[in-house]
Every structure is written in structure tokens, then in C-alpha cells.
Design brief:
This protein has 13 helices and 16 strands. By secondary structure, it is α/β, with parallel strands linked by helices. It has a 7-stranded mixed β-sheet with strand order 8-9-10-7-11-12-13. Bound molecules: guanosine-5'-diphosphate.
């Protein structure tokens, strides 16, 4: 998806604006210098166009002065983005820092949309016109806080976006090679595995059009078929060891995920599971992608480690209990060939549809054998169920009242027991009919 990066000094209202654009109030925290957020990019859409918004606000290296930090931020944004949304505080006007950013933006020749924020009243709106002096085009007065003109702003952003590459659209029927993202924290063995897989059978190195971030995919033949491994440049490239590396890696991971159908998450089996492993797994689930867990460095796992590993998995990866698991060694090649069947299983589940008749028969039986507990004299029932989508499978339950979370989890578990879905996240939502 095309990427819109939001740049500007702290407190100009970037986060509020990002919240407006993605249509929600929570989530994005205020600018905190030196803090790298776990999440830096957000899916958004406007007039049917989908894009990704990156809030650079969370990435401000503290070490150097503010001006240098913002300059770094702007460079990063420019490197990544298709369009830069530059936010200036209209009530303050252009500062030296803003002008330094403009220099960077101008040199990059990236399309820039200039938002004059905090134009909450006519006077501030007038002040916004002074920002013509920045020399990067018309300042668009907006009020992120009140939502004023944010539609106009998005119109402007969309006008400058590149055309979408159709095959990258989420949920679309798969055409061409299936798209696999290899993920995992640094040093789990991603590039070793990629090398192993690609060794004899790399077919083509192919750059994907329609983006300026030049991710490079590799087409690799495995098990008699061609697979597209997403953004392998991001795996092979050794990240610079600077403060931006985190930000950059997270972003890169997210966009690889967005373009993939299935993620193979590598963990280092010889070490304890890390917070970051769990976060990556959660990202995959949240993104609604099929998931395979690969325990790498199995050559280093002994009896004792294995004992702890099984317990770790049970305790910490409960949310991904449904994911197929392969124990591999990228180094020796052990069981690497088992990845393909696992990926196949996950992808098949991801695209699986349960016929409505079968689903409702299942619910009729379930509701009579395991009715919802009676609450306040009422007993909510599932009246009708349908699978609203595949890739990933989403179920909608029409109910006669609110189903409590425990019962919904029970339903989800039973759906899996009955219909499989190994390797795919599923979601169950309800619509209450009074
Ligand atoms: P990446 O950062 O995830 O791409 O990880 P690398 O592929 O660069 O691997 C990190 C280190 O782990 C390297 O020293 C590899 O040689 C080593 N490594 C990768 N896979 C294995 C494995 O299966 N067994 C062992 N013993 N070492 C491995």
C-alpha cells in the first residue's frame, strides 16, 4: 500500500492528526522524544483508497538537539514515504526547525502536503496563509482537534498518491505465487533460512513496482511450486545500528506483513522466548495473516531445553495455539522441507469457507448442548450465523442478546475443533437482534 509519512516538530499535533486520519481517538500517544513505539504505522482509507500512515512522532533521538533530531526524522520519512504530510503549527508560524525540514523535503523531490494545523478559528486560519513563505506550496489550514478540513486534507493527499498495485490488495483472491513473509527478531536465523531455501532454487530477484521503498521480493521454487518471499532485502540487509534502526525494522516488518498472505515467524529455539517474539506473533494475528511457527536452531536444543521450551510455548503462546509448528535448523537443513506443507495447511485454512447450512447446524447443536448461562433472567442465544469472509475467516453471529466474552471464546474454540482452521486466525463478532 502507498505510504504517507507524517512529519513535524513535537506538539504541532501530528498524533491528533494521525488519529483523525485513521478514524479513532485512542492509540497514538503524544510525542515523546527518545521513545520508539511498538507500532508506528496504521492502516487508513479514504474514498475507497487504502494507504498506510506512518507517524514519525515516536521516533526522536534525544541525544542530539531538537533540530538535528527532526532532520533525521524527516530524512527517514522521505526515505520511506510516497507522500510526506508536513505538519506546522499555524498559530506559531514557520520556525527555523520547520525551515530545515523544508530543505530536506525539497531536496528529496517527494510530494509534500503542507498542513497548517491548529487553525481552529478564522484568525488562526488567516495566520496559516503566512506559511506560503515556506515555499512548498499551499498551506492547508486544518484543525486536527476539531476535525476541521481533515477531509480536504485527505483529498489532497490522495491526489498525490501513486496508483495502487492491484495484486497487493488485502483479501483479494490470490493470483500468482503465494506470498510469504519471513519474520522474527534479529539473529533468529531469517537470512540463514532464506539462504538455505534459495540456495539451489532461487529463480528471480524481482522488485515490486508501485512503491518507492524498493522492497525486493524473491521468487523461490519449493516443493515444485514458486513462492514469493516478501521483502527479502529487508532480511538480507544489515540494519544500521543507529536509533532509527528499531523504527525502521518495525515499519519494514509491518509493511512486509501487509503484503503477505502467510507469515513464517522464526523463533530461536535455543533461547527463551522474548517479549519481541510474542509481539511479532501478535502483529501477524492482528494483521489477519496465516501463521506458521518455525523453531529454528533446533540443532542446539537438548533434552533439558526441550522440556522448558514446551512449557514456554504452552504458557506464552496460547493465543497462537492453532499455528502449525515446525522444528528446524537453518544451519543443518533439518526439517526445512516441512515448512511447505505447514504453509500449505495455513493458507488453506486462511481461505476456507464453512457453508452456511453446516455452520448453522453446528450452532443449533452447540446452543442446545452448551447454552449460554442465564443472566438477569435472560438467556442470549445464537439465532443465525454466517461466515462473512475468508482470508482471514470472519464469522458473524446474530444473537438475541449480549454473549459474554467467556462464551465467545468457547464458541471460537469449538469452531476450531469442528472446522479446523489450523494456521489461520479467525474472528467471531456478534450482532445483537433485540
Ligand atoms: P537474522 O538476523 O534473523 O537474519 O539471523 P541470521 O540468519 O543472520 O542468523 C544469526 C546467527 O544465528 C548466525 O550466526 C547464524 O549462523 C546462526 N544460525 C542461524 N540458524 C541457525 C541454526 O539453525 N542453528 C545454529 N546453530 N545457528 C544458526
Amino acid at each position: 500500500l502507498p505510504l504517507v509519512a507524517v512529519v513535524g516538530r513535537p506538539n504541532v499535533g501530528k498524533s491528533t492528526l494521525v488519529n483523525r486520519i485513521i478514524g479513532r481517538r485512542e492509540a497514538v500517544v503524544e510525542d515523546v522524544p527518545g521513545v520508539t513505539r511498538d507500532r508506528v504505522s496504521y492502516p487508513a482509507s479514504w474514498n475507497g483508497r487504502e494507504f498506510t500512515v506512518v507517524d514519525t512522532g515516536g521516533w526522536l533521538p534525544e541525544s542530539r538537539g531538537l533540530a538535528a533530531a527532526i532532520a533525521e526524522q524527516a530524512k527517514l520519512a522521505v526515505e520511506l514515504a510516497d507522500v510526506v504530510l508536513f505538519v506546522v503549527d499555524a498559530t506559531v508560524g514557520a520556525t527555523d526547525v520547520d525551515e530545515a525540514v523544508v530543505e530536506i523535503l525539497r531536496r528529496s523531490k517527494k510530494p509534500v502536503v503542507l498542513a497548517a494545523n491548529k487553525a481552529d478559528d478564522p484568525r488562526a486560519e488567516l495566520e496559516a496563509t503566512a506559511l506560503w513563505s515556506l515555499g512548498i506550496g499551499e498551506p492547508l489550514p486544518v484543525s486536527a482537534l476539531h476535525g476541521r478540513s481533515s477531509g480536504d486534507l485527505l483529498d489532497r493527499v490522495l491526489e498525490t498518491l501513486p496508483e495502487p498495485a492491484p495484486r497487493e490488495r488485502i483479501g483479494e483472491a490470490p493470483g500468482g505465487p503465494r506470498r510469504v513473509a519471513l519474520m522474527g527478531r534479529p539473529n533468529v536465523g531469517k537470512s540463514s533460512l532464506l539462504n538455505k531455501l534459495a540456495k539451489e532454487n532461487r529463480a528471480v530477484v524481482d522488485s515490486v513496482a508501485g512503491t518507492t521503498r524498493d522492497p525486493v521480493d524473491e521468487l523461490i521454487d519449493l516443493g515444485g511450486r514458486t513462492w514469493r518471499f516478501i521483502d527479502t532485502a529487508g532480511i538480507r540487509k544489515r540494519h544500521r545500528e543507529n536509533q532509527g534502526a528499531d523504527f525502521y525494522a518495525i515499519l519494514r516488518t509491518q509493511s512486509a506483513l501487509e503484503r503477505s498472505e502467510v507469515a513464517v515467524v522464526l523463533v530461536d529455539a535455543s533461547e527463551s522466548l522474548a517479549e519481541q517474539d510474542l509481539r511479532i506473533v501478535n502483529n501477524v494475528i492482528e494483521a489477519g495473516r496465516a501463521l506458521v511457527l518455525a523453531y529454528n536452531k533446533w540443532d542446539l536444543v537438548d533434552e533439558e531445553r526441550r522440556f522448558y521450551l514446551d512449557r514456554e510455548i504452552e504458557r506464552q503462546l496460547v493465543g497462537a495455539r492453532w499455528a502449525p509448528r515446525v522444528n528446524i535448523s537453518a544451519k543443518t537443513g533439518r526439517h526445512v522441507e516441512k515448512l511447505v506443507p505447514a504453509i500449505d495447511t495455513a493458507l488453506e485454512s486462511w481461505g476456507h469457507r464453512v457453508p452456511t447450512g453446516k455452520l448453522n447446524q453446528f450452532f443449533t447443536d452447540l446452543v442446545s448442548s452448551h447454552p449460554h448461562p442465564i443472566r438477569g433472567g435472560k438467556q442470549p442465544r445464537v439465532l443465525f450465523a454466517t461466515q462473512a469472509s475468508v482470508r482471514p475467516p470472519k464469522f458473524v453471529l446474530f444473537t438475541s442478546g449480549f454473549l459474554e466474552p467467556g462464551y465467545r471464546r468457547f464458541i471460537e474454540r469449538r469452531i476450531r475443533e469442528e472446522f479446523g482452521f489450523e494456521g489461520s486466525p479467525i474472528s467471531v463478532t456478534m450482532k445483537i437482534r433485540e
